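Appendix B.2, paired examples.
Example (i):
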Amino acid sequence: MKIMVVEDDLTSRTMLASVLRKWCYQVAAAETGEEAWDMLRAEEAFRVVILDWIMPGISGLDLCRGIRSEATVNPLYVIILTARRERGDIVAGLEAGADDYIAKPYDADELRARIQVGRRVIELQLALNERVRELESAVSHIRTLQGIIPICSYCHKIRTDKQGWERLETYISEHSEAEFTHGICPECMSRHHAELLPGG
């Protein structure tokens, strides 16, 4: 899993990245909110973002709001890691769109556990997204062959939405996953190829 660390303090950024790599996570680090924003928009592989609140330019809260304003199917778990620990700060961070809030100085075991929670949440969201795609695809296939289908009483061609006419098997193949193989039923065999039948 790939994690982004957004921290303007070099020492804090380096130490956190080192700890995360020790836990076998892939880590990318950004010094500013602007840099992080560009990296997030350029690459969709990140699953967790750990960001500081107080940074020059785009603050952690502004970055969090920007992340949540983007319509994306790729879930992102955001953790604010900051020295601000007042109740109002925690509320503000969560209302800005953070999934979790950890006060500095952080406990390594607690941070690791919270990242694991984020990982489980992300995996559930990804599984849910895949299930939704499968259901949407199934519904799409079901809908294509519902309703009244105009068919010629003589040649059995289907009238299409473009007011043209298609062979029955062509229409069904285009609107479902069905495939056709041709044969001859006994009635048609006796009517059209009686000479091929025994005693014909």
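Example (ii):
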Amino acid sequence: MKIYHDSNLLQQLNNYLFLDTNVLIGAIKYRELFGPFLKTIKENGGTFLTIPSVTFEFLRGTDDVEDYKKREEFIKELCVVYPIENHNNDIKDLQQTLGKEGKNMSYTDFLLCVCAKKFRQGSHLITADLKDVPLKFFKRINVFTVDTDSDVRVYAVYSLR
């Protein structure tokens, strides 16, 4: 098991990093693999954030109370949960801007894009949903691959254009 990334990636991730649900799922599923990777990002100045709807999606995937509590603690240790829903003007502005480009995105993906806009300078969005981020407004600045015994996942890092 290994994470493959180019040598510039860790230096690029030194500010606000908004994590999508699939990143949290991968991070907890392959904790021994993601742990050192995420620790290095934090040591280089990266701050992990997520939003309430990502937290909801992540927690609803649990099978029992013990798993729920484990995931809840994982989020508390890793991320700051940013309440983007409290910023209605930012949401409305980006909703108008995205128009047709963002019409098929989920509410959670839309809110993550709003966060990238709000924190603009140096913020990034990390997701495995490579088709959900509108490239008209975001640029894919890097990717990394997680290779396990049973799976290969590609995650992309986006910033606002």
